């Protein structure tokens, strides 16, 4: 009698887990239209129901204690593997592994580029480089480190080069310096590619970026932050995975990041080990072919009167005479219509919008909210491009400034042609979410 009761309860438990998994899976899939959001609750709740239920039913069957012990041992082995396997994999990818190479700008894009990579063995770093078509190789060396950053300097503007790293096998990669004068060019911008609980679709986004790059020839890639889930000790596998993902693009063009809340902090600061702005602050400015780029840090004080705010006011004023557009990147957005309070930075819009309007900012690219949002403000466009691969859970509702919103993995391809900047937000299959143009105010 007792055995029957236990069998009924176990069966009900297993069936409830399965049904709950399906119901929650259907609900989540309705929120975010991707099979993963059905499979996740289905697998988790299904397993919570079926694993203990089937174990109990097996143990209730007639048999020897040896057989029962074998069943328990088999279940224990499967559960240990399911829980411990990912952790073992992550430990294998602990910092530092050989990763990269990837390019950044720590100085003038016209005459310098900084070649970065990560090395399992700390050894003196050497980069060899030559102009395209030339067999005259030069070399730049730096000291022994696990995180080499070798700045190639005194390069010619608007010139194609190639480089190789003997320590990484000597494969050659192309790159080109920024032109001396304005010209047509394209770049890519996106953010929030980080893992969440071990899941990320970053490689799908990068794959489509590579696909678009065949036509667009992106000169550089901007990331609006949240590139890893956690930066510090024990999370080196995330940096290794991030570098693995970006290397196909970043080995041959600079990859620039606006610091996000997920990679900020740590002592020593992991972000500074992987990226080099040429100075310790997390904000920066650079010019490329008549476009003025200001990359802010919402993870440092950005209130009026703060060092970063004062610096930003100067950076907005000190534009080259040939500037056609001013672009700002920042992690946390000035506004979002995601209903959850934690995504809103109280007062930020009031602090920045009048300044950006007065100083001729044309477009802002932000992240943090895991979706695409395009807001049309009276003086400039405001884009949240926070679907670079992270789990999607934001659900913005259209607001008065909203042009388009969609919760989907994506990136933005930007073409600058003469006095027109064209922005296309693209899904991972290349289809268009949103496309718009910005005309130069000059
Ligand atoms: Fe964030």
Description:
The protein has 442 residues and is α+β, with helices and mostly antiparallel strands. It has helices spanning 2-31, 36-60, 65-92, 202-216, 236-250, 270-274, 307-317, 348-358, and strands spanning 99-104, 113-118, 123-131, 138-145, 149-152, 160-164, 172-176, 185-190, 218-223, 255-257, 284-288, 291-295, 325-329, 363-366, 372-376, 381-385, 402-406, 410-417, 420-427, 432-439. A hairpin with a 4-residue loop joins strand 15 and strand 16 (381-385). Helix 1 (2-31) packs antiparallel against helix 2 (36-60), helix 2 packs antiparallel against helix 3 (65-92) and helix 4 runs parallel beside helix 5. The longest helix has 30 residues, at 2-31. The model has no long low-confidence stretch (mean pLDDT 92). It is 32% helix and 26% strand. The protein has two domains: 2-92, no CATH class; 181-439, Metallo-dependent phosphatases (Purple Acid Phosphatase, chain A, domain 2, 4-Layer Sandwich), CATH 3.60.21. The strands form four sheets. Strands 11-12-13-14-16-15-17 form a seven-stranded mixed beta sheet, covered by helices on one side. Fe (ii) ion binds next to loops.
Question: Mind summarizing the main beta sheet?
Answer: 7 strands, mixed
Using only CA atoms, what is the Rg?
Answer: 25 Å
Q: Any idea of the CATH topology of the largest domain?
A: Purple Acid Phosphatase, chain A, domain 2
CATH architecture of the largest domain: 4-Layer Sandwich
Count of runs of 4 or more consecutive helical residues? 8
- H-E order: HHHEEEEEEEEHEHEHEEHEHEEEEEEE
Overall average pLDDT: 92
Shape: globular
SS strand fraction: 25-35%
Strand order of the largest sheet: 11-12-13-14-16-15-17
SS content category:
alpha+beta
Distance between the termini: 87 Å
Bound molecules: fe (ii) ion
């Amino acid at each position: 009698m007792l055995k029957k009761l236990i069998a009924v309860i176990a069966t009900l438990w297993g069936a409830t887990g399965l049904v709950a998994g399906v119901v929650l899976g259907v609900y989540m899939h309705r929120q975010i239209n991707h099979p993963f959001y059905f499979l996740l609750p289905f697998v988790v709740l299904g397993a919570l129901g079926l694993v203990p239920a089937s174990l109990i039913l097996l143990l209730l069957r007639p048999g020897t204690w040896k057989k029962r012990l074998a069943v328990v041992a088999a279940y224990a082995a499967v559960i240990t593997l399911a829980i411990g396997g990912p952790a073992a994999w992550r430990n294998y990818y602990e910092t530092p592994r050989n990763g990269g190479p990837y390019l950044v700008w720590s100085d003038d894009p016209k005459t310098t580029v900084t070649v970065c990579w990560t090395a399992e063995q700390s050894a003196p770093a050497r980069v060899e480089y030559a102009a395209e078509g030339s067999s005259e190789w030069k070399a730049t060396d730096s000291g022994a480190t696990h995180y080499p950053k070798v700045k190639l300097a005194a390069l010619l503007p608007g010139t194609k080069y190639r480089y190789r790293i003997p320590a990484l096998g000597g494969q050659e990669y192309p790159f080109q310096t920024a032109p001396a004068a304005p010209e047509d060019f394209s770049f890519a911008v996106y953010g929030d590619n980080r893992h969440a609980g071990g899941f990320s679709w970053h490689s799908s986004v990068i794959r489509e970026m590579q696909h678009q790059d065949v036509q667009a020839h992106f000169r550089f890639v901007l990331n609006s932050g949240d590139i890893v889930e956690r930066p510090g000790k024990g999370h080196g596998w995330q940096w290794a995975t991030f570098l693995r993902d970006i290397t196909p693009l970043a080995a041959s063009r600079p990859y620039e990041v606006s610091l996000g809340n997920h990679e900020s902090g740590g002592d020593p600061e992991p972000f500074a080990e992987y990226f080099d702005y040429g100075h310790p602050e997390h904000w920066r400015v650079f010019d490329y072919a008549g476009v003025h780029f200001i990359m802010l840090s919402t993870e440092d004080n950005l209130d009026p009167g703060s060092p970063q705010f004062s610096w930003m006011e100067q950076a907005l004023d000190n534009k080259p005479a040939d500037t056609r557009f001013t672009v700002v990147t920042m992690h946390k957005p000035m506004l979002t219509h995601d209903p959850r309070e934690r995504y809103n930075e109280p007062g930020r819009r009031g602090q920045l919008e009048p300044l950006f309007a007065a100083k001729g900012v044309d477009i802002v690219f932000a992240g943090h909210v895991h979706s695409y949002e395009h807001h049309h403000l009276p003086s400039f466009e405001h884009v949240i491009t926070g679907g670079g691969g992270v789990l999607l859970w934001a659900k913005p509702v259209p607001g008065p400034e909203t042009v388009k919103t969609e919760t989907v993995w994506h990136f933005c391809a930007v073409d600058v042609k003469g006095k027109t900047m064209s922005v296309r937000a693209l899904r991972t299959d290349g289809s268009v979410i949103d496309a718009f143009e910005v005309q130069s105010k000059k």
